[in-house]
């Protein structure tokens, strides 16, 4: 069958010039038809500007090359370069623009066609840690000559040992002269562990704050005894000292007679021992041992209706001695309160 077709074809197209003309016409028609069928019209959109191009290539890459449309290394094309094209397809090209990124101590000149900062960083393999900072928001759209700074933020927890100061405790000591002091226990410092959160930006410390404390050693207080025992010299040479707890200026009158004191004792005058005086118990408690200037040692054993506030009444053995004493303003020294002697 095939062989018969070949022989028929040769008989028809081998008979002179007329046959050759017919053959050329057929071939030309076929070529024209083939070329027409290969012709494709597409739309090229470059940064939102459109142009219509005609191509006889079957792929995106071929269409662009045949129309002298060049691509930069970072330009983005959609569809892919090797994809097939059809009439009225749209080829989108986004031209890369120059931007400047400062990161890790370097200034990078970058060409990018990404839409925003976040996509650009990913495309350029610039990774961000959780706390890193951007000088502009990650969703900022990319524009030509944009400048971006990436600040590396690092946080460290540092444990420091700090000293704890001891306290000084002062205690009154009535067995020591007033104005004197004695250290009875030395103080020692304690220690505490302080956890500090330190924040660094590009390796430079910008903030630190205490986030925890733990005492590892308690301090020991320093104890100081301070003398409270006051004294006066009973003689001009100062050989005889009178130690007292309180000094009062009182108005002293005198009384004599028989009877019983407010504390149930018999009043007495004993220049070389203890005599009796009447006091206001609100000022000088009954049973207090005192020294009255010009009178001597005495015990507050009695009270009186006229003895109020800083008034006292000293007991004398006779009325004559009372008149001799009269009323005087003298110093009274509390030697010991009830229960202290």
Structural account:
It contains 5 helices and 21 strands. A hairpin with a 2-residue loop joins strand 5 (97-103) and strand 6 (106-112). Helix content is 16%, strand content 44%. It starts with a helix and ends in a 5-residue tail after the last strand. The chain is an alpha+beta fold and 341 residues long. It has a 6-stranded mixed barrel. It is rod-shaped and about 185 Å long. The protein folds into 5 domains: 2-38; 40-94, Phosphatidylinositol 3-kinase Catalytic Subunit, Chain A, domain 1 (Ubiquitin-like (UB roll)), CATH 3.10.20.90; 97-151; 156-225, Single Sheet (Resuscitation-promoting factor rpfb fold), CATH 2.20.230.10; 245-336, RlpA-like domain (Barwin-like endoglucanases).
Concise structural overview:
This protein has 341 residues and is of the alpha+beta class. The chain has helices spanning 2-13, 17-38, 60-66, 117-123, 319-325, and strands spanning 40-46, 49-55, 76-78, 90-94, 97-103, 106-112, 133-134, 147-151, 153-164, 168-177, 181-185, 190-201, 204-217, 222-233, 241-244, 246-255, 275-278, 289-292, 296-302, 311-315, 328-336.
What's the helix and strand layout?
Blueprint lengths: L1 H12 L3 H22 L1 E7 L2 E7 L4 H7 L9 E3 L11 E5 L2 E7 L2 E7 L4 H7 L9 E2 L12 E5 L1 E12 L3 E10 L3 E5 L4 E12 L2 E14 L4 E12 L7 E4 L1 E10 L19 E4 L10 E4 L3 E7 L8 E5 L3 H7 L2 E9 L5
């Amino acid at each position: 069958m095939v062989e018969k077709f070949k022989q028929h074809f040769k008989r028809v197209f081998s008979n002179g010039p007329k046959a050759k003309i017919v053959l050329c016409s057929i071939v030309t028609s076929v070529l024209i038809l083939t070329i027409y069928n290969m012709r494709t019209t597409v739309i090229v959109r470059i940064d939102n500007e459109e142009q219509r191009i005609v191509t006889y290539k079957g792929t995106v890459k071929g269409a662009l090359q045949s129309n002298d449309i060049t691509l930069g290394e970072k330009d983005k094309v959609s569809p892919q370069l090797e994809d097939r094209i059809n009439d009225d397809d749209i080829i989108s090209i986004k031209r890369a623009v120059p931007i400047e990124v400062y990161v890790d101590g370097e200034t990078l000149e970058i060409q990018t066609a990404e839409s925003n900062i976040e996509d650009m960083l990913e495309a350029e393999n610039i990774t961000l840690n959780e706390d890193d900072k951007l000088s502009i928001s990650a969703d900022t759209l990319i524009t030509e000559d944009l400048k971006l700074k990436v600040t590396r933020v690092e946080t460290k927890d540092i444990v420091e040992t700090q000293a704890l100061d001891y306290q000084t405790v002062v205690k009154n000591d009535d067995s020591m002269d007033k104005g004197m002091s004695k250290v009875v226990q030395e103080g020692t410092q304690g220690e505490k562990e302080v956890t500090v959160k330190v924040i660094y930006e590009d390796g430079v410390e910008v903030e630190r704050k205490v986030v925890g404390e733990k005492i590892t050693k308690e301090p020991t207080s320093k104890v100081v005894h301070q003398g409270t025992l006051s004294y006066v010299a009973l003689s001009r040479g100062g050989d005889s000292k009178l130690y007292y707890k309180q000094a009062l200026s009182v108005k002293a009158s005198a009384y004599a007679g028989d009877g019983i004191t407010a504390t149930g004792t018999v009043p007495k005058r004993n220049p070389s021992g203890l005599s009796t005086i009447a006091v206001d118990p609100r000022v000088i408690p009954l049973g207090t041992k005192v020294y009255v200037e010009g009178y001597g040692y005495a015990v507050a054993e009695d009270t009186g209706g006229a003895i109020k506030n800083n008034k006292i009444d000293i007991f004398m053995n006779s009325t004559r001695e009372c008149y001799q004493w009269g009323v005087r303003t003298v110093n009274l020294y509390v030697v010991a309160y009830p229960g202290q002697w």
